[in-house]
């Protein structure tokens, strides 16, 4: 047997250290992969990955060295080739989404494939499907979703772009009345889209009927030049996301036909000008609710990706004790894994509720819409804020190498950061959730105990009823009991809602003065949902039944998630009267136990998320552990190494000529393997 490679000080070389970590696994990572994703997903990923890796245009080795202009060009090339592959191999929407995930680059067709097509799917009538959706699916029309304005983000009701009904010609006139009404930040708009789903204030006979979506042709289908009355372009470099052509858009009294108002739920009678109202005023939020549910599921992968890179980096034997054995490192990294699983389960539940809601709405039943919209708003805040914070925690845990682009964390942070803001800023969305929670609380608290039925589909009513029946939390239990933890989180959330309701309704405090408390109330609600559905999975999922290996791996992650959240928000639980100093000290002890239980499986757990090197583009997170050769190989590719500068400040010459460092670079490459 060949002994493992070690350095001159007797420490394990990276690949051997990684192999040693994998040997500690108490479960089969492939089995967990199937549990998380399903075999169909994994087979699809393997199939699409093989196709992409065989295409030279998807070689990512140049990504870290290109400027924005080159990256935009490369992104367009990749977008075109990906679309060609989709046609060639008859990809469905799941295949296309998988390719986008693996390419891991905001591309020019991104908003066409997501927001635009979903808007057409959900908000068109049969005639409009033929006129707009069919050519969009064929990529004859390339669209975007134009809602955000220069002066208006999450405040949809405050949008200024207008669509005025012109009765004489039976047309709508789209207009940008002010500078702040300029559509701004719109993905796929800057250079790519020829159509836009534009959210406008509908004006009929001088009356503003609120925001509605309209399809507007903005560029000529043959020349791709902006049409008359349309001003459109790319809005320039950004903090990240620079392969996406986010753009601006203005209209100067542009006329569109009557059919261009998306009319599945609301419309204008072309003969009388009468407004046919939607059955529910929040139907305009349908697309955003779907997007927010996907944002939650994406956030779990962002968390897992960060943990994958940092956990593998921390395994290195850089001293007598591996860094990952220190409790401080475990405190930083293991909760990220636990948060990922928590989002996984709440995301699955959101997906189920969304599908149920869509079926019910098609039959005129809007019972679930308010709760789904409110909770999706809150979970969008929690998931994105947590995920973007986790990337930075992981980056710092990687030490100096975390600052290198080669870590794979810097570009992940840059491209993920907009998720915190788009589709709803945290402060605005927390108010939407807060409004719903207070309305629900007023309904529940106005009833006599026992007169409101618990709702399987409305956990908000469930925890508010529990609070109404036991406001002082006389329930006794142990924090080692998951069901007791669910009750704790429910009581804390209900107390927060009850206090805001009391201060608002009884003490007369202004909404503005309570915004911080409303935000905290919303996050308490979300954390209850996360704990509830995580525990529900452990107790109802057949694959996690008692005694099965996967349960013994995932249950410590539940404990870690619930207990670290409890510890970080201890003041709120104390205030709610459901926590004590003794329980607080016990919580800290139980966290250490959970960390110790997770430790042997730290690397196998991230292996189970099955992120290929093609996706990660990380020297630190490589599956084979060849960290240092890969970093040297990537450094050797730096274009700055190809020239010799003139460092004499007295000379105007900047570059003397081509570099004479070929021998150095060749020596570097001799020690390394090509980057992926």
TrEMBL record:
Cited SUPFAM superfamilies: Acyl-CoA dehydrogenase C-terminal domain-like (SSF47203), Acyl-CoA dehydrogenase NM domain-like (SSF56645)
Residues reported in the UniProt entry to bind FAD: 148, 187
Enzymatic reactions: a 2,3-saturated acyl-CoA + O2 = a (2E)-enoyl-CoA + H2O2
Occurrences of domain Acyl-CoA oxidase C-alpha1 (ranges): 285-438
Residues in Acyl-CoA oxidase C-terminal domain copies: 484-649
Subcellular location, principal: other
Record localization: Peroxisome
Residue ranges annotated for the Acyl-CoA oxidase/dehydrogenase middle domain, each copy included: 144-254
Cofactor: FAD
Catalytic center residues: 423
GO biological process, one term: lipid homeostasis
Entry GO terms, CC: peroxisome
Statement: the UniProt record of this protein carries the keyword Lipid metabolism: yes
UniProt-recorded name of the protein: Acyl-coenzyme A oxidase
